[in-house]
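Its record is retained below.
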Amino acid sequence: MAIDRMKDISVFVHVAEAKSFTAAAERIGLSRSAVGKSIVRLEDRLGVRLLQRTTRSVSLTDEGVAFQERCVRLLADLDEAEMAMLSHSQAPRGRLRLDLPVSFGRLHVLPILSDFMRKWPEISVSASFSDRYVDLIDEGVDIAIRIGDTEDSRLMTRLLAPHRLITCAAPAYLESHGMPRTIDDLAAHSCLAFIHGGRSVEWRFSENTQIRSIAISGRFATTNAEALRDATLAGYGIARLATFLISDDLRAGRLVPILRHVDADGAPIRAVYPSSRHLSPKVRVFIDELLDAWRPEPPWDQP
């Protein structure tokens, strides 16, 4: 009985969309007579007239309009359930197109890709490395790793890891210029800037439970995070750098953390992919691989 009801509902939606019994019959491979009987059964069961028929046209009644909206959602949910099961049962295959931040992608995603490709031999990977905003849909990208928030309603996101930032400097710089004790002390120091989107990224601190942003100035600025780290190691000044970039330098004492009591994390590291009613197997298994590697705590933040 339930299967027959779903068949009748599907026939009704096709007739409503085609506005024709004959056209709907051709689309779904039934006779016009079978389509008509299906609609009559549905109307009799519901006790309402769903369609107005004339010799030239078919149109929805008010009740038909309301019922069609619910039927479309019902059939879409059924499709989604089927595709979700298929995505879990089908082996992932095909080309996975990635867009990765330059430094983070090279340091922390590439090593995972090596094991991932060994585990899934029917997947090939095409990876672009860029710190610019890439339109995933226009450029045909399956998934991007982004550091920060996204406001594109066409995209879905999955939280992967925190993005911790440390204010730091080389020991030689601090010996020459002194250790800043407060946020305001930074004004007397050379603060190295990371350029993103054509301007210096402000530094954010957490002071008395409030977020405080400051514009910084110094004699060196760059669009490349690894170059900024190298300049900091060379004693150019103070920088605010991600732990994923400098964890080894902090452990070895090559960089010294500053103002730890007011540090604030950056926006988290996320997987971003085009919105759809189901997740393709190749995207799903790649996200799982990243989560396995970085949860509950990413290796760069472990003691």
User: Anything to note?
Assistant: Residues 1 and 7 are 10 Å apart (CA to CA). The longest strand covers residues 155-163. The mean pLDDT is 88.
